[in-house]
Design goal:
The complex is a heterodimer of chains A (469) and B (191). With 469 residues, chain A is α+β, with helices and mostly antiparallel strands. Chain A contains 21 helices and 17 strands. In chain A, strands 8-9-10-7-17-16-15-12-13 form a nine-stranded antiparallel β-sheet. Chain A is elongated. Chain B is of the alpha/beta class and 191 residues long. Helices cover 41% and strands 19% of the residues of chain B. Chain B has six helices and seven strands; from the N terminus they run αβββββαβααβαα. Chain B is globular. The chains are: A alpha+beta (469), B alpha/beta (191). Chains A and B meet through helix 2 of A and helix 1, strand 1 and helix 6 of B.
């Protein structure tokens, strides 16, 4: 079966003699297309059709936690929209107007072009243009493949209904589609991105244009390679501009897998740290399914001290794993969680501690075996379990009790075991990490950098595991 | 299309646009179909099988939506409205009778929207059963093989609307933003 075409579906619906069938058929066809363009948006059908003031559809979405919506008004043709002066009449509502019948109508287009300067937040398009931009035109490859191959095109689609503006029909739509697609040559790619940026300014509202240009700039910087990247200059300007902030869910889902999957993207830690500043560990966990199988090391390592987590778990790496797993050292997403594979250990970290719950399965650590490794940490509390006594040593304030514990264990004739230790992490956001040898979990009282949790997991917990092997 | 016909077409289109905006702004009326975009949906059938194309078609909302056919006369003068209105009355009767025969009483209403009054000597009686009877007498072909039904004429008369608009009516309408807020609060039930 060939690509599904909105124009055909709408034309079939419009030919229905029964009013109810006509309206339901048209709305269903349009909703199907809008869902394909922007799967994250919620689309509600209203009881109205081709009404002067009430929208046919309402598109709702979440933007950085805030709910936003935009009305979609269906019109029979560009001529109907022009005759109704809908652009002017509805300009206060910043709507999307979709002409159902696609046909060249220069006089109608000339009319709406006169109105659009006074209605800068209105998008007027038609079913033909939506077909030109439709992900359904990519055939059976599916959206995932399209996103991996054409990240900007994918973002244009998901931003179109939320933030498109102006007259998007015919050649303009085809030009936008073409400019959103990658070209093979390196220089051609940069020219393409320049043209894309210009079109985006014209065809998208400020917030959407900013997002798309940020995405284009991330691609431009990423693809420019180490030789030409001047991070201090380029990224410095970039960071001071208005384009900072968090990446949306759609941007994350498209850009991060794309950049990670391309080997020609820069390895500059500054670049990846910049990208990392626009997302969180929780964001990565939410998009786990799009990152499966990708090596995340380029992205994670520069952000180890920027991204926050609450819990880490250590396991012996070769437990139940294929023999060649030893070759895959680095950061990946496995089992919905960010996972670091070291030579002998696997460390899982998570932003949501509820995701990592292991039952008690190990003996408390022997103080004699782990004490030398604890010296480099700031011990806040230690419980010592001897054969004759149990001693709890707590720090007053932020004092380090390591020397106290050492003195106690040296002066008492007993073999002490340690179920867990509390380690203070100093800095601007001080917190305490509990390293539990019985569960092999390192848990922060409040969010702490992944780097600190991994340091405790590998520097403390893995020592106990090592002694058990 | 000649220049005169083109001008008449544009004027007619403009009248339909203004009438649609005004009527829909009342929140009681939905007119999704116009003759300029989908004449199939604005065409109704008479007793004699003849077809009448209205300028707009939709529903009048209330406890239960009633179908509505609208005739728009964007005239600056009386013009030929008296004769056209007589035909409109005959059609309203004939179409209603035909629908009752074929599908039962849909309670269809008929609206005449003009910018210029006409037949002023009998203005107050233009939506009466007597005028419908007179219209049928003038257009007997509208009856087909049926006999005239006075009771039905009275019923059709109760479903007639005669609306005179002003060029400045748009200035009295709520803005699109205000209207959208109104629509979100009201829950008019319709198709």
């Amino acid at each position: 079966m060939g690509p599904i075409n909105l124009q055909n579906a709408v034309n079939v619906a419009l030919s229905s003699p029964r009013t109810d069938d006509l309206i339901a058929g048209v709305k269903h066809a349009v909703v199907t297309e809008l869902e394909a363009l922007d799967p994250a948006a919620e689309i509600r059908m209203t009881d109205y059709f081709n009404h002067s003031f009430a929208p046919d559809l309402v598109l709702r979405w979440s933007d950085s936690g805030r709910r936003a919506e935009r009305g979609v008004y269906l019109r029979y043709s560009m001529q109907a929209a022009a005759a109704g002066h809908d652009v002017t009449a509805l300009s206060d509502l910043s709507p999307v107007l979709i002409a159902l019948r696609t046909g060249e109508d220069p006089s109608a287009e000339a009319q709406v072009k006169l109105e659009l300067p006074e209605a800068p937040s209105v998008l007027l398009t038609n079913t033909g243009a939506l077909d030109d931009l439709s992900p359904r035109q990519t055939g059976s490859g599916g959206r995932q493949l399209a996103a991996e191959a054409e990240p900007l095109f994918e973002l244009v689609r998901s931003n179109l209904m939320r933030g498109g503006r102006g007259l998007l029909v015919g050649g303009t739509a085809q030009k936008l589609a073409s400019q959103s697609r990658p070209v093979l040559s390196r220089d051609g790619q940069f020219d393409q991105l320049d043209r894309f940026t210009a079109s985006v300014q014209e065809l998208f509202l400020d917030a959407a244009a900013t997002r798309l240009n940020r995405a284009a700039n991330l691609l431009r910087l990423g693809l420019s390679g180490d030789r030409t990247l001047e991070p201090d200059l380029v990224l410095g300007q970039f960071e001071q501009g208005v384009e900072g902030g968090r990446l949306s869910e759609a941007e994350l889902g498209v850009l991060v897998p794309y950049l990670l999957s391309r080997q020609d993207v820069t390895t500059s830690p500054r670049y990846w740290a910049y990208l990392g500043s626009m997302l969180t560990l929780a964001d990565l966990e939410r998009m786990w399914d799009r990152l499966l199988g990708l090596d995340l090391t380029r992205l994670v390592e520069p952000n180890l001290h920027q991204w926050l987590a609450t819990r880490a778990a250590v396991t012996h790496r070769l437990d139940g794993r294929p023999a060649d797993a030893a070759a895959q050292v680095g950061w990946r997403l496995e089992g919905h969680m960010l996972t670091f594979a070291a030579d002998r250990w696997t460390v899982q970290v998570t932003a949501d501690k509820r995701k990592l719950r292991l039952g008690e399965n190990a003996r408390p650590a022997a103080w004699a075996e782990i004490s030398q490794y604890l010296r480099e940490f700031r011990l806040a509390a230690v419980t010592l379990q001897g054969s004759m006594r149990k001693i709890r040593v707590d720090a007053e304030g932020s004092a380090n009790v390591y020397d106290d514990v050492l003195a106690i264990t040296e002066n008492l004739d007993d073999e002490f075991r340690v179920p867990s230790v509390d380690i203070d992490v100093l800095g601007p956001e001080p917190t305490r990490i509990n390293a539990d040898f019985t569960t092999m979990l390192a848990t922060a009282a409040k969010s702490v950098s992944i780097g600190e949790l991994v340091r405790v997991a590998l520097g403390v917990l893995s020592r106990h595991l090592s002694s058990q092997l | 299309m000649s220049v005169v016909a083109e001008g008449a077409h544009a004027k007619g289109l403009e009248g339909v646009r203004l009438a649609k905006r005004y009527l829909e702004s009342t929140t009681y009326i939905r007119l999704p179909f116009s003759v300029y975009e989908d004449s199939v949906q604005t065409t109704l059938v008479r007793l004699d099988g003849g077809k009448k194309i209205y300028d707009m078609a939709g529903h009048l909302l209330g406890d239960k939506p009633h179908p509505l056919a609208v005739e728009v006369k964007n005239y600056d003068a009386v013009g030929n409205q008296a004769a056209e209105y007589t035909e409109y009355l005959a059609n309203a009767y004939s179409i209603t009778a035909h629908e009752i025969n074929e599908r039962g009483d849909l309670r269809r209403e008929f609206m005449w929207v003009t910018w210029h009054p006409f037949s002023q000597s009998k203005w107050g009686k233009l939506t009466s059963g007597a005028e419908i009877k007179a219209a049928i007498e003038e257009h007997p072909e509208a009856l087909g093989d049926s006999a005239f039904d006075t009771e039905l004429a009275a019923r059709v008369a109760s479903r007639l609307w005669l609306v005179v608009l002003s060029r400045r009516h748009e200035q009295l309408m709520l803005t699109s933003k205000e209207l959208l807020q109104v629509f979100q609060v009201l829950e008019r039930k319709g198709v």
